[in-house]
Amino acid sequence: MTIDPQTGHGFDAPTPAVAYAAAPRILSEINAVLAIVAERAAERRWDLPGSEANDREFWLRKAALLDRIALQDATPDAMAAAVEAAGPLVVFDLRHPTFVAGPHGPDSIEWDPSYRPYVRQEYAAWHKDQ
């Protein structure tokens, strides 16, 4: 079976089309993520924006945003940025497993060789609850 993190083929996770079907426009999401960064900078709080749930939301939204950009611009740089952005979300979820919403945790073999489908799984579950 072929596994493709870009299309989601071969992973037990929502496809990009399903995961991001109700997502805001990319420009709106860029503004939302940058607003969180600006708030952190203004308060000089780069480690936590106030609570673990808010911190996770930041990492999730940033990873999903960069994944969506890589889906539209499948250049090596865009795809590498999406892979890199998934890392902090995975680390957070490994430390705080109660936040994981999908059927497969971040330590699942399901995500080999890429955590981008994990981001989609978690974004779809998070966005459904918004």
How would you describe this structure to a colleague?
The chain is mainly alpha-helical. The chain has one domain (22-128). 58% of the residues lie in helices and 0% in strands. The chain is built from 5 helices and no strands. α3 (52-72) packs across α5. The longest helix has 21 residues, at 52-72. The radius of gyration is 14 Å and the shape is globular. The N and C termini lie far apart (34 Å). The mean pLDDT is 91.
Keywords for this entry:
130 residues; mainly alpha; 0% strand; 5 helices
> Please, what is the oligomeric state?
single chain
Secondary structure class reads: mainly alpha
Number of domains: 1
Largest sheet: none
Shape: globular
Number of helices: 5
Write the element-wise H/E pattern from the N-terminal end onward: HHHHH
Question: Which value, in Å, is the CA radius of gyration?
Answer: 14 Å
The fraction of residues assigned to DSSP E strands is: under 5%
Q: Average pLDDT, to the nearest integer?
A: 91
N- to C-terminal distance = 34 Å
Q: How many β-strand stretches?
A: 0
Uncertain runs with pLDDT below 50, 5 residues or more? none
